[in-house]
Amino acid sequence: MSRELTQTELLVELEHVVEENLNRHLAVAKEWFPHEYVPYSEGRTFDGVLGGEAWRPDDSTIPEPARVSLVVNLLTEDNLPSYHHEIATTFGRDGAWGTWVHRWTAEEGRHAIVIRDYLVASRAVDPTALERARMTHMETGFATEYGTMLQQLAYVSFQELATRIAHRNTGKVSGDPVCERILARVAADENLHMLFYRNLLGAAFELSPSQTMRAVTDVVTSFQMPGAGMQGFARKSVTIAMAGIYDLRLHCDEVLAPVLRQWKVNDITGLDAEGEKAREELNTFMDQLDVMATKFEERRAARHAREAERL
Fold it and tell me: Is residue 50 part of a domain?
């Protein structure tokens, strides 16, 4: 059985890949400004110390699933300090790794700014409830369940793509061109972040294929979105899934499968017994997930049919 590389060895061996992908990212990433996307002229003073108008549910025509998803997405973005702590602790703050960590954090920070400003200006959600939810969620914080660098790289490779899809589909379901434009812009950032992490993990497969395969399998079979710890997440996830914003089918076909194909996990050679076992577990899980996704689609279609009959 080949020796597993230590985290320090992996950091050193991947440093040049980080630098190459950091330079690529900086060359293609487009500067943008949250304030240009927000319709501030539509805003009105709220009740409270300035004596404005209290928020009412009919202040916005955005459908409920989109409102729920916008709040989940925003609260997820709000936990950026915890995410920064996790990746800075793992990747370090020096060299190309450190430069990436800080750049990624700065870019992610814009997402919460633009989404919150939009929600407040457009009165899409109750701002008091939103702030209370933010406090509760951030007081809980976020700590990765993955103890190795390879697992964390695998996780963010999938998670950034999942977030991109959730943002884009939320924008489409909102029915508001302004909201859709905002979330398309945010999703574009998430896609570039996914490419960075996906490329790094691809390089890790070349360095230590069995070790990396084990990490990928561990993550795929236990994956949860970073907002899973927020209050009422299970109920909110059902609402989001029923609206087709993010569900098992999307997770299987548009997140996991494309990334795994890009890494060519079934073509990788040089695996030891543990690596082969991990690949077998991965393929078995993907088959099971496909079955579960189909069953969910059938249940959702039946539920929508029943609802249509009642109208």
Answer: no
